[in-house]
Amino acid sequence: MTKILFVCVHNAGRSQIAEALTRHLAQEHGMPVIAESAGTVGGKSLNPDAVEVMREIGISMDQQHPKLITQAMVDESHRIISMGCGV
């Protein structure tokens, strides 16, 4: 199983979209991939525009919430992808 970690500052938009989209595609294609996202600062809630964009293409982010990155997340990941924003 491959684990991919998407990292952004607030973990409220781009990294959450990447997590949801990767999870959806992995499930749809039977790929052994786990997607997770986190932020270096962490936000209080998801960006409503990000949630709406994903809803428009049929992917729910209802179970997702901003998370602060931990060393364990880093250690357990096979790939870490920075989403910009100075991370």
Short description:
The chain has 87 residues and is α/β, with parallel strands linked by helices. The chain is built from 3 helices and 3 strands; from the N terminus they run βαβααβ.
Explain the overall architecture.
With 87 residues, this protein is α/β, with parallel strands linked by helices. 34% of the residues lie in helices and 21% in strands. The chain is built from 3 helices and 3 strands. The protein has a 3-stranded parallel β-sheet. The model has no long low-confidence stretch (mean pLDDT 95).
Q: Into which percentage range does the β-strand content fall?
A: 15-25%
Radius of gyration: 12 Å
Number of helices: 3
Class from helix and strand fractions: alpha/beta
pLDDT < 50 runs, ≥5 residues: none
What average pLDDT do the residues reach?
Answer: 95
What descriptive keywords fit this protein?
87 residues; alpha/beta; 3 helices; 3 strands; 21% strand; flat
Topology:
Elements: E1 2-8, H1 14-28, E2 33-39, H2 48-56, H3 71-76, E3 79-82
Parallel strand pairs: 1-2, 1-3
